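Can't attach files on this board, so I'm pasting raw text. These are the components:
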Amino acid sequence: MRQIAIYGKGGIGKSTISSNLSAALHEIGHTVMQVGCDPKRDSTRILAEGKFIPAVLEEHREQLRVGKDEYAINLDNIVFRSPGGVYLVEAGGPEPGIGCAGRGVLTALQILKDLRAFSTYNIDVAIYDVLGDVVCGGFSMPIREGFAEEIYLICSGGFMSIYAANNIARAVQRLAKRGDAGLAGIICNSNGDEAFEHAFIPAFAKKLGTSFVQFVPRSPLIQACELEGRPLVEYAPDSREAEIFRNLAKAIIENDSRVIPTPINDLAELETMYRQCLAKK
Amino acid sequence: MEQEPIKEPAAPSASSSEACTDPYLRCAFNGAALTALGISNSALLAHSPQGCEYLVNNAFASQECDYMETMTLCTKLCVDEIVHGGEDILARTIREVKDLPISALFVLSACGPEIVGDDIVGVCETLQPEVKFRLVPIECAGFRGSQYDGIDIALDTILKKLVKDNVEKVPNSVCLVAPHANANPTWPADLAWVKQVLSRMGVKVVATLTHRTPIAEIENIASAETSLLLSHDAGQKAADYLSSAYGIKQVCKGIPLPIGMTNTHRWLTALGERFDALKTTEEMVAEGERMVMATCRRKWPMARFLYRTPAAIVADATVGIPLVRFVTEEMEMTPELVALYTSQRPVRELLERELQSLGLNPKVVYGTDVYKTRKSLQEVRPQVVFGSTIERHASEGLSVAYVIEVVRMVRQFRMINREYFGYNGILNLFEYVQNEWTMGWRSKEKRYGAKW
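---
Top answer:
Structure tokens for the assembled complex are below.
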């Protein structure tokens, strides 16, 4: 089973790319499970016709309240199938203001493993959509505990998204020594400044020691899909954007490279690199 | 016979120097448990994983609690409570014991529940109407600091939660603060000596914070005229609070605790002056000094063989600072190293005053850890170390002839509590020196290695 984690700055479009990628992978014949690793549990909304599905930790909490444990959870109550055929799971989180969300994500993943969710549904690609940033040790758990093996960073041409991607690469560098996890590539979700992004992001990927995998343009069609709660390959199967996600799915399946990244440790160096690219533009 | 030099441990890296790996001091959770367990007719609920309860057991032993009277409970948090929060299990545990015949239940939170945001104060307030005893939540996660910080946190909570206002002052009265922040492994004997002295001076002890203290004493603490701090390591904040909130003035402030002739004389005189009992003080001093000298004449302690021997003191400030004078004046040794576990400003000032008054200039290490102690011992090369079992190991291969184990940890189990304070305390310390000296001569290796 391929275990792919999508990381990036908050609001950069990880859930949009994960969902469209999951749908595209399913279209080319893979059995895909998308696991939302965010207490907000909105990762799978696009695949679930705009609805929020119940989360693993909600179900877990209910079982604990009646004195039972995770093995009392019925897989049908936490794994859902989208109309298009992608399996959907939301890790969820504790009640607001209490508990540890990072540890919660790991618990949810562990529950899926313990209940043999992946083998039950014969999953061959699992996509983990991990929240915002590596905000604390807890959120790096999917990497640390070996759930995420191939890590893709999403960024745009905005400096802060590059900065966040570099920070995540630092976390990957630290954690990669523990196991099989490695950085597999960078995906650009454009913020509109395509010329700059085409120039800078491949250079940034090279600096990290990885490859630039796909450019996703800014498009009203993608926004419309989000609103309608449907992935591109279903909503507009003949569109250029749908083709881009098909290409991304193929690229990811064909990409077997995983590297320990070489992030930029000095912020000034990153700023200089960014400024130089801006100046060229 | 030359000993093989042992391999030096690698220097700790900058990142590990902050790690809580040092055996000298335990964490704040331990200090808070030690304080809460000093209140009689109460129970302690550790809101923690079960490993932290080990610290409660340790505190239980140090406070000499009776398992027939004092119950300790634990919520035994597991990963589920870390993920979802442990407030439910805390509430359930409190409800399970709601009929216990106790006056207070102290709820102590450890690191895990504080990191995930469990609101133990909120849970206790919600459940207070359902239970028959007082619920006293103490937020004392281990990461808040050392055991001394935990003692301060617990004393602060206990005073703010339990003390009643508007009580009449009792003339010639005192409350004793932090007797348990003392590295004498049998510190209750020090407390007993202090109480005996105060009783002879006609001073009433209103409350002890804390050792076998009924909750009624704590409630009534504002009736004390004075406070007497029995530690240089913890409790100053509580004494300051009592002063500012209830006008309870601290006595013997800034004077080393009564270990050794001079310290005891000075400390007793300060008490006598405050409580108008100088005549009693003079009698106690005369009797005590006469008793010590007569005993020494009869028993012939071997201290004279250690005249001018270079010595090191590695201890908490409570025992360590007064011991400097004891080692210099009574033992007639030369302190060449003073390493204290704590490093607060009042501790530094007190030690510096003492060293200046004695005309000593030893190497001083504040906030020592085992690594620093080892390096200092290596540098100073004392012949005698006043410390603990830890220094016995830390001085391996350094030709230290005698390690006098006066602070915990100690090798020998001590069934009888023996004070360091006062005149019997001097004899007790002499005895430890004497025994170590004798034990040293039982070792052929040390006998041949000794310079004499």
